[in-house]
Every structure is written in structure tokens, then in C-alpha cells.
UniProtKB/TrEMBL annotation, chain A:
GO terms for biological process: mismatch repair. The keyword Ligase does not apply. InterPro entries: DNA_mismatch_repair_CS, DNA_mismatch_repair_MutL, DNA_mismatch_S5_2-like, HATPase_C_sf, MutL/Mlh/PMS, MutL/Mlh/Pms-like, MutL_C, MutL_C_dimsub. Residues 433-576 form the MutL C-terminal dimerisation domain. NCBIfam families: mutl. It comes from the Bacteria. This is DNA mismatch repair protein MutL. Keywords: DNA damage, DNA repair. Belongs to the DNA mismatch repair MutL/HexB family. GO terms for molecular function: ATP binding; ATP hydrolysis activity; ATP-dependent DNA damage sensor activity; mismatched DNA binding. The keyword NAD does not apply. Gene3D superfamilies: 3.30.230.10, Histidine kinase-like ATPase, C-terminal domain, MutL, C-terminal domain, dimerisation subdomain, MutL, C-terminal domain, regulatory subdomain.
Automatic annotation (TrEMBL), chain B:
The lineage of its organism: Bacteria, Bacillati, Bacillota, Bacilli, Bacillales. The keyword Transferase applies. It comes from Sulfoacidibacillus thermotolerans. Pfam families: DNA_pol3_beta, DNA_pol3_beta_2, DNA_pol3_beta_3. InterPro entries: DNA_clamp_sf, DNA_polIII_beta, DNA_polIII_beta_C, DNA_polIII_beta_cen, DNA_polIII_beta_N. This is Beta sliding clamp. Residues 136-251 form the DNA polymerase III beta sliding clamp central domain.
């Protein structure tokens, strides 16, 4: 008898589950994707004990026809595609047909469902992948999947489940990402009978963002929107001073699918540039819309990674969008609270004011949520995503109703204006230096708000921009090397590199092939003098091959300029005369970016009049 | 404007005013020296808003011309560049021609063109009414500053302590400085043009240290003027302005002990060297503590740094009066005071291990330096 045999279904499904359902949150992800694909408007997730004893996902979607219910639990059974051609045009979240059987293989699943025109629903119970019960049942339209005792028959997996808090956090995170990607749907998460998240599903990205990230971050968020013929980007990016220590709050969604992408993350960081210090990551939630043929989501069963066919284009566009958005409206950091809840009375009134503010904020932003949104999943799939269409998709995604595309730019501008009005450092206003305090900070006012300006950081920024301007104007010529550098490269890469010979020579970098697999660098840019030439040449050539442009030495030089600016800037702990303070403020007002020092720290903190009035309880 | 001037003369004037050029400022014109050419003399001004220095150069009657004024005018030039340029010029004489805001500097066959700044933007020096003034030889003022300015506080926690108290109660002028761990006093009898009951001001220690660098060490008289918030010191052709520190200087009248239990006399040079040797091992601990064991037979100077090692040295005092005593103190304070008293035979008077001791010349109470000891640990 042969040794090879086909695995039993249960074993195969358990193995598949290993890939798809690695932790309770992954099951939640699969189930809410099913719900979204079923056209649900409201999705409720209930979890107990980290999702291990109970996980329940209820939706008001289309439901499953009674005759299909059993099929749904077969592996590779799906309603979402029929042939391979469909895969590339896919607009639904799921398609592999693995979710339900995988979950059912490692838990006890009860599914009840009713389609709109059926009089009664049907309930099925599976245990370890086996159907144990099927009964008709009365239930609301939609589907409810109840997963009990997850991993009860896969002890190995159970062992790897972390603390219940961790699992709970992952569940909330999964739903929050889905909610951010689909602000037109209402999500509610209940963990151990406590409501952990509730998004309204009013179609407004802002309202979803507020529900997820909180009011403070939402207030500091800027609206990002950019379209190109192939792509539409829309989302919220938060002012740099709220940057986090990890990438975990850089959220991306492609065509309504939350994804993780280091490349997109780096593109956002490039857009923030020196606004955030190294090792800090801004909070962003950005949705990309594009023709599904331009992406491949079938990279991993969990589908949190996607491949872009033109990743460089997408990233460049994203960087540009972030840059533009920040230039338009970076806010001077606003002091969050002058004092931390000193008295209970204080806390009480504060809460009162929070409520009041939230409601006013949401009415202020109601432009974003003008009308109930249509979900793109129900839209016709366009083979060619035109500019207008892309924008429409993007706006739909964030709930701006676009029945008449003509009005969109108008709405958009209004939104941008309201953001600008509220957030932007009022450059047109003349700051008046009131005093220097602690030999560290200049206190200034503009008649409306108070500014605390870090004398060193502000002067550093002034000098940085001045020096950078000088260096950019400086003549750069090729500096010949007495002993040329040799760099070993793959023959194919040398071919590629030689295409950029002229471009590199423009920067003063000259090289030539030097025997097999070696190139010889004969000239380097004169501004490299005194720097680590070998490393720079290596980096520059690597950049040429990867990015198709010379960037390495620019960064290096920027570092040099930062250093110089830092050294020449007035130090903390030095007295400043009124004349010097005035000169500094005047110079600041002429800067491209007066709000952070070149190291990424803020230069100014704004305390608004209304904040002061609130703190002193003049207003509530 | 057009002048020809002796390089050394210009370089010296620039050197003088450069003390009031800030190293870092947000107002670029303050990096400049305001150069004015009048029919009879030239005047250089620098003012960093804290201190201001103005100096005048006159032509002399030497057979060789020192300054030749061809055309009057004014300009503000970057002081550091100008000083560096003038120092390096190849020829004895320098010619400066200014048209609009550009200065051409020629010497020998070298030609520099320097971009200038608009004199109208240069800040005005403070006005000080020349009524309240004291006069004294320049070297006396130097000794007043040298004996006290080093003891001023460097931290801004108590701003008045960063300055030297200038206190004139006829006929005595006292300079007092303290960083609250030590105190230095020096006093002289000063002549005044008018009579004042009392004249007090707090002069920034930093300003006095800069003044020290440009005061001539001679018998030449200097005049000191005190206005509301400004000090003006004039000597020769130079005027030195400084901001004054506002506030009330602490009352020190009861700090100085009048009795003692142990007194020694030492040679400051020998004692300084011993303490410097002991301090080598005291560097590690924060306040550089060294210990003195005062005995009738000899004085022991020790320092102990648990991580590094210890040092002991004995010296013979010139004289010893009173009881044996052990005391610990910051070596730097002791060295500063001894350095100031370098030209005297020094008498040190102690009261107890926990109370302040004073250093002063053997047979005078001026100048006087007081140091607070460090508390003795029980087993160290």
C-alpha cells in the first residue's frame, strides 16, 4: 500500500485554519469580511474571554439561501468568484472560500441566517467541521455566526494565544481598521459585555476616525485627498506632534480592504520628512482606490498584504499628497490641556465641554457626511478608472455623496478651507514678543492666541532654511579621485547603471565599467569632500539602481546643514533682548515651515484664547 | 568714507570692541561693528544689548601718520570678518573706502570687498547721564573685579547672584560677589566728584569679566557711572556699557564671622599646589571635596575617591593658632580664593567644621574670601 494518501477534510481544514485563523481576531476578520461582502450596513461583534469562549458576528446583509448553507462550510466554496479571471477584477474582500470551513474545523460554530424574501431562516451547528444540527429558525434578515470554544480541538494553537487583554485588543484593532476602511458601515464591538467601539457608519471618515482614535487626534487631523488618472487617495493625517513610537497607527486601506504595507508607510514618512523625528511615526488613515487589476491581494491567506503592480507610482503619489496636505495646513502644536484634572469639579465641567465640543465638531464637519453613502462594493466595476471616477470612488469611500460630480471640487474646497481656518498657523498675523522666560522660551501673542516659542529650535529652523538655500545654490563640480573607488556589482546591474551615467554626472558622480563585475568611480561631487566618500558613492549607486535617482548625498548634506544650523543657533539659557526676539519672530514668519526644528521637534506651542477661557472656566 | 589707518591701531580698536560682539544672535546686524568716520577721529561701536563698547581713535602727531581721514562717513561691517582680515593684512597701513554699503579694504597688494550693513539700523547705545560717577585708577578697578567676579553664580536660579554688588557708602566702595556657597568682598576708598549717601548696583559678573579683558593695567584713571539700569565705565578713549541686574542683593552683613578658633598662615603658592594635587582625585565626586586636618605640628591635605584611590600630603604652615580641626570643602572654591590672594601671605580663620571659614591677607581684611565647608561624614 502506498504511503501517500489524501488528508481527511477535518485535518486539511485544520491546517488551513492554521494559516487563516491564527488567533481569535483573525476569525473576527474573516467573519466581518463575509458580512461586508454580504452587503451589511450594520455589523456587530461580540467577544468573551478574548474570543476564546464566544465570538459572535451579526450582520444585516443579504443572508445565505437555505440550500447554500451547508455548502458555505465546504472548503473553496464561495459566492464571490467563479473563475480565475474574476480574481483580478475582484472587489469583494474574501474569495478563497476558506474562512467558514477553517473556523468550523477548530470550534463549535452556530450559523443562523435568513435571506430577505424567505419567511423563515435556517440554523446550522457544526462541531469540529461536522454538521450536527440543521433546523429552521425565526431570525432577522442577515447572518449571525456564533463561534464557541475556538481552538478547543487544536491545543497547540491554544497554547500560543496570548493574554486575554492582548486578544481583546487585537479584536478591536481588526474591527477598527475595517471600520476606518469602510466609514459607510456601522461597526459595534462588545467585549465582555462592555462596548469597546462603535462607529456610526454615517459615511464620514472623520466621524469614524473620531470614534476610533478619539477627539484629540481627530481635531489635529488634516484632510488628505489627491487623485491621479489611476489612483485616488483620501484620508486623514494627524499633525506631526502626535506621532507615535511605532507604525501601528499608520493605517491604509486599498479598495476598502485594510492592509499593512511598509512601502506605503515609508511613503507617508517621506511626506512628513523632517516634521517627525526619526523613530516616530505619524497617525494616519488613508484609503486608496484603484482599479482592482492594478493590485494583487492573493499574496497571503489573511490578505493583509497586497502587491501593487506600480508600487513606485503609488508611493510617489502618496508622498506628494502627504506633503501637500501638510504644507497647506500644518497646525502649530496646540497645548492639549494646561492642567491635568486637578479637581473633580474641573473634570466634571471638562467632560461637559467635551460633549459640547464633539457635537459642534461633528456638525462643523457635516459637509463630509452630507448624505448616506453608497458602498463601492455595490458599484459597477469600472475597467478604466478615470480621474473623475477615481475621485468619486475616493469620496464615496469617505461618504461625500457624489451624485453630481460637478459639485465635488466645491465641497472639497470648503472642507479644506474649514480645516485651514481652524488648524493653520496664522502666518498673516503679526506675532508680538512679550517676554523671554526661563532663558528658554519666548512668549508671544497675536492678539488672539498665546505662543510659546523655543528660542533655540526656532532660530535653528531659521538658519537651517537659510543655509539649505545657500547650499542648494552652491556650485557643485566633479572632484577627481586620485585613487578611484571600485565597486563590485552584478553584470546586469552594471548594464542598468550605465544608463544613468549622464544623470549621475550632472551631480558630479562619474563612473565607468572596470572589467568584469566591477565599476570604477573616478569623480565624486565636490560637496562630498570631508565625508565618507566610499559609503556615499555606494549609497548613491544603490539609489540609482533602486530609485532611479541620486538621493543619498542630499540626505547626508541635509544632516550637515542641520548640524551647522544647530551650532549657530542661539542656545537655551542665553538672554535675548527685545530686539533679538522681534528679529526671530519676523524671520520665522518668512519660513516655509516654521513649526518644527530640523530635528523634528516643535518650535512653537499655541495656547488658544478659547483654551484659556476654558481652563479659567470663563466658558464651559 | 575714506581712511588710511595703521593696521595695528585698527586691529587693537577692533579687538577692544569685539568683546561686545555676540557669538550667536538672531539679529544679524549685532554681528557688526559700527564704524563712524568724523573729521577729527574715527569711532567704533559694538553693542550686543547686554554690553556695549565704544572706542575712539584719534590721529597722532607722530612723524609717520597713524590715521589719515580723507572723507567722513559710516558703515556697519561684520566685526569678526573685519578683525580676521585686518590681522592678516600684509602691509602696515590699511586703506578703507566705503561706497554705499560696500567697503573696500586694501593693504599692500591685497584687496577685500566686504558687504556692509545699514548704519541706520544699528541700535543706539544706552544713554547714561554722567552725573553720578566715581573715579579710580584702572588697576584698582581691576583688583576689585579680580577679587570678586569669579565668585558670582553661574546658574540663573537667583539672578541677583550672577552679578557683583557695587556698593558705595562714602568713602568706601565695596564689591561683593557670592554664589551662596562662597562669598568674596573687596573694598577701596574711592574719590567721587560729588557726594552720595549711598550708591548701589548689581553688575553682571559676565560684563565685569569682559571689562577686565580690556581695562589697561595702569594708574590711568577710569570713571564709573551708574544710571538707572546701566553702568558706564570710561577709560582712555573707550566707553564700556553694561546692563545692570534688577533686584535686591541679599543682606550679607551678618554672614562674615568675627571670631575664630583656629587660624593658620600659609604661603598661597605652596598651599595651592598641595590642594591641586589632592583635587586630582577629587574630580570624580561632584563637588570636588578635599579634607584638611589642621594640627599644631602640620596640616594634612587629603582626598579620597572610593573608585580611584586616595591621596595624603602634609605641609607645614607658617603659623598656627588655636585648636586642632578637621574640615572638608570644595577644592575649586579654595583654589579660586587662593589664586585671587596670590600676591599676599594668606591667613585662614576657621570656627568649626560646620561653619564658614575665611581667607584674607595676613594683616588686612581686604580682600576677604569666605567659603562654606562641606559636612563631614562620620567615618570618612
Amino acid at each position: 500500500m502506498g504511503r501517500i494518501h489524501v488528508l481527511e477534510d477535518l485535518v486539511a481544514n485544520q491546517i488551513a485554519a492554521g494559516e487563516v485563523v491564527e488567533r481569535p481576531a483573525a476569525a473576527v476578520k474573516e467573519l466581518i469580511e463575509n458580512a461586508i461582502d454580504a452587503g451589511a450596513k450594520k455589523i456587530q461583534v461580540i467577544a468573551k474571554d478574548g474570543g476564546l469562549t464566544l465570538l459572535e458576528v451579526q450582520d444585516d446583509g443579504s443572508g445565505i439561501a437555505p440550500e447554500d448553507v451547508k455548502l458555505a462550510f465546504l472548503r473553496h466554496a464561495t459566492s464571490k468568484l467563479r473563475n480565475l479571471g474574476d480574481l483580478s477584477k475582484l472587489r469583494s474582500l474574501g474569495f478563497r472560500g476558506e474562512a467558514l470551513p477553517s473556523i468550523a474545523a477548530i470550534s463549535k460554530v452556530t450559523l443562523r441566517t435568513r435571506i430577505a424574501d424567505a419567511e423563515e431562516g435556517v440554523q446550522v451547528r457544526f462541531e469540529a467541521g461536522q454538521l450536527v444540527e440543521q433546523t429552521p429558525v425565526g431570525c432577522p434578515k442577515g447572518t449571525r455566526v456564533t463561534v464557541q470554544d475556538l481552538f478547543y480541538n487544536t491545543p497547540a494553537r491554544l497554547k500560543f494565544v496570548r493574554s486575554l487583554q492582548t486578544e481583546n485588543a487585537h479584536i478591536v484593532d481588526v474591527v477598527a481598521r475595517a471600520a476606518m476602511a469602510r466609514p459607510d458601515l456601522s461597526f459595534r464591538v462588545q467585549i465582555d459585555e462592555r462596548e469597546a467601539l462603535h462607529t456610526l457608519g454615517d459615511g464620514s471618515a472623520f466621524s469614524a476616525f473620531t470614534a476610533i482614535q478619539g477627539r484629540n487626534l481627530a481635531k489635529a487631523a488634516l484632510w488628505l485627498s489627491l487623485t491621479s488618472p489611476d489612483y485616488a487617495l483620501a484620508g486623514l493625517i494627524v499633525a506631526p506632534e502626535f506621532a507615535r513610537k511605532s507604525r501601528s497607527d499608520m493605517w491604509f486601506a486599498v479598495n476598502g480592504r485594510p492592509i499593512r504595507s511598509v512601502a506605503l508607510g515609508n511613503a507617508v514618512l517621506a511626506g512628513y520628512s523632517t516634521l517627525v523625528p526619526k523613530g516616530r511615526f505619524p497617525v494616519v488613515a488613508i484609503s486608496l482606490s484603484m482599479n482592482p487589476t492594478l493590485i494583487d491581494v492573493n499574496v497571503h491567506p489573511s490578505k493583509t498584504e497586497v502587491r501593487f503592480s506600480e508600487e513606485r507610482d503609488v508611493c510617489a503619489l502618496l508622498t506628494e499628497a502627504v506633503k501637500q496636505t501638510l504644507e497647506k495646513g500644518v497646525a502649530s502644536p496646540i497645548v492639549q490641556s494646561l492642567q491635568q484634572d486637578t479637581a473633580s469639579v474641573m473634570t466634571h465641567t471638562k467632560e461637559g465641554s467635551i460633549v459640547a465640543e464633539t457635537s459642534s465638531a461633528s456638525t462643523g464637519r457635516s459637509l463630509l457626511a452630507a448624505k448616506p453613502a453608497t458602498s463601492w462594493s455595490q458599484q459597477v466595476v469600472h475597467e478604466q478608472v478615470s480621474d473623475k471616477k477615481a475621485m468619486q470612488v475616493a469620496l464615496d469611500l469617505f461618504g461625500v455623496h457624489s451624485a453630481k460630480p460637478k459639485i465635488i471640487p466645491h465641497v472639497d474646497r470648503q472642507v479644506a478651507d474649514s480645516v485651514k481656518e481652524e488648524e493653520k498657523f496664522p502666518l498673516h498675523r503679526q506675532l508680538r514678543a512679550v517676554a523671554q522666560v526661563l532663558k528658554l522660551v519666548i512668549v508671544a501673542e497675536d492678539g488672539e492666541d498665546i505662543y510659546l516659542i523655543d528660542q533655540h529650535a526656532a532660530h535653528e529652523r531659521v538658519l537651517y532654511e537659510a543655509f539649505l538655500g545657500k547650499i542648494r545654490r552652491r556650485e557643485n563640480y566633479p572632484l577627481p579621485l586620485l585613487v578611484p573607488l571600485t565597486i563590485e556589482l552584478h553584470a546586469a546591474k552594471i548594464e542598468l547603471l550605465m544608463q544613468y551615467e549622464v544623470q549621475a554626472a550632472d551631480f558630479g558622480l562619474r563612473f565607468e565599467p572596470f572589467g568584469e563585475g566591477v565599476i570604477r568611480v573616478t569623480h565624486v561631487p565636490s560637496i562630498w569632500e570631508g565625508l565618507d566618500i566610499a559609503k556615499l558613492a555606494h549609497d548613491a549607486i544603490y539609489d540609482l539602481l533602486e530609485e532611479r535617482k541620486v538621493t543619498a548625498f542630499q540626505n547626508e548634506i541635509e544632516d550637515k546643514v542641520i548640524m551647522r544650523a544647530c551650532k549657530a543657533a542661539i542656545k537655551a539659557n542665553s538672554t535675548m533682548s527685545q530686539m533679538e526676539m522681534d528679529a526671530l519672530l519676523e524671520a520665522m514668519q518668512k519660513l516655509d515651515n516654521p513649526f518644527t526644528c530640523p530635528h523634528g521637534r516643535p518650535t512653537a506651542i499655541r495656547i488658544t484664547r478659547s483654551q484659556l477661557e476654558r481652563e479659567f472656566r470663563r466658558t464651559l | 568714507m575714506r581712511i588710511v589707518i595703521l593696521k595695528s591701531l585698527l586691529s587693537q580698536a577692533l579687538q577692544t570692541i569685539s568683546k561686545a560682539i555676540p557669538t550667536r544672535t538672531t539679529k544679524p546686524i549685532l554681528y557688526g561693528v559700527y564704524l563712524e568716520v568724523f573729521a577729527t577721529h574715527i569711532q567704533l561701536t559694538a553693542y550686543d544689548q547686554e554690553i556695549g563698547i565704544q572706542t575712539i581713535v584719534h590721529p597722532t602727531d607722530d612723524p609717520e601718520p597713524t590715521l589719515q581721514i580723507e572723507q567722513t562717513g559710516s558703515i556697519v561691517l561684520h566685526a569678526k570678518y573685519l578683525l580676521d582680515i585686518v590681522r592678516k593684512l600684509p602691509h602696515k597701513l590699511v586703506r578703507i573706502d566705503v561706497t554705499d554699503l560696500t567697503a573696500t579694504i586694501r593693504s599692500g597688494s591685497a584687496t577685500y570687498t566686504l558687504n556692509g550693513m545699514d548704519p541706520r539700523e544699528y541700535p543706539h547705545l544706552p544713554s547714561v547721564t554722567e552725573e553720578m560717577s566715581l573715579s579710580m585708577p584702572s588697576n584698582v578697578l581691576i583688583s576689585l573685579i579680580e577679587q570678586t567676579a569669579f565668585a558670582t553664580a553661574t546658574s540663573e536660579i537667583r539672578p541677583t547672584l550672577t552679578g557683583v554688588l557695587f556698593s558705595f557708602v562714602e568713602p568706601q566702595l565695596r564689591f561683593i560677589a557670592s554664589d551662596s556657597h562662597r562669598l568674596s568682598i573687596h573694598s577701596i576708598y574711592a574719590e567721587t566728584k560729588y557726594s552720595y549717601d549711598k550708591l548701589e548696583a548689581i553688575i553682571p559678573g559676565k560684563s565685569l569679566n569682559e571689562l577686565l579683558k580690556i581695562l589697561p593695567d595702569s594708574e590711568e584713571f577710569t570713571d564709573i557711572y551708574i544710571a538707572d539700569n546701566q553702568l558706564l565705565v570710561t577709560f582712555g578713549a573707550t566707553k564700556f556699557y553694561s546692563r545692570l541686574i534688577e533686584g535686591q542683593y541679599p543682606d550679607i552683613s551678618r554672614i562674615i564671622p568675627t571670631t575664630w578658633r583656629t587660624a593658620i598662615e600659609v604661603d598661597p603658592k605652596q598651599f595651592t599646589e598641595s590642594i591641586e594635587r589632592a583635587a586630582l582625585l577629587a574630580r570624580e565626586n561632584e563637588n570636588q571635596v578635599i579634607r584638611l586636618y589642621l594640627r599644631r605640628t602640620h596640616i594634612e591635605v587629603t582626598s579620597n575617591s572610593p573608585d580611584i584611590g586616595k591621596v595624603t600630603e602634609t605641609i607645614d604652615p607658617i603659623s598656627f593658632e588655636g585648636d586642632d580641626l578637621q574640615i572638608a570643602c570644595n577644592a575649586k572654591f579654595l583654589l579660586d580664593a587662593l589664586k585671587a590672594l596670590n600676591n599676599y601671605q594668606v591667613r585662614i580663620e576657621f570656627t568649626s567644621p560646620g561653619s564658614a571659614f575665611i581667607l584674607k591677607p595676613t594683616n588686612s581684611d581686604r580682600p576677604l574670601h569666605l567659603i562654606l565647608p562641606v559636612r563631614f561624614g562620620p567615618n570618612t
